[in-house]
Amino acid sequence: MRRQTLNVTLLSQPLFYGGFLAYGVSAIIWLKVLAKLPLVVAYPLVSLNFVFVALGAALFLHERVSWQMLIGFALIFSGIIVIAKG
User: Fold this and answer.
1) What SS3 state is found at 62?
2) What is the rounded average pLDDT of the residues 60-79?
3) DSSP per-residue letters across 31-50
4) 76: three-class secondary structure by DSSP
5) How far apart (Å, rounded) are the C-alpha atoms in residues 69 and 10?
6) Share of the chain above pLDDT 70, in %
């Protein structure tokens, strides 16, 4: 009985549908990126999600960004630059 209530509650939340919308928009953007760039160049750009999620968490959720994370961000950016120029 509780499970059914949870599903109905979830389906009544606008953020639930916003998540689906965001996923659909990201899929369309990804297809446009693949139309412009070779997969071997485009796919490493997916690793930028790690950076964006961490920065978003710091900005909106006030989570701490450590120096180790900053080094990781620099490594991700460096890898993308190396692949893009190669």
Assistant:
1) coil
2) 94
3) HHHHHHS-HHHHGGGGGHHH
4) helix
5) 33
6) 92
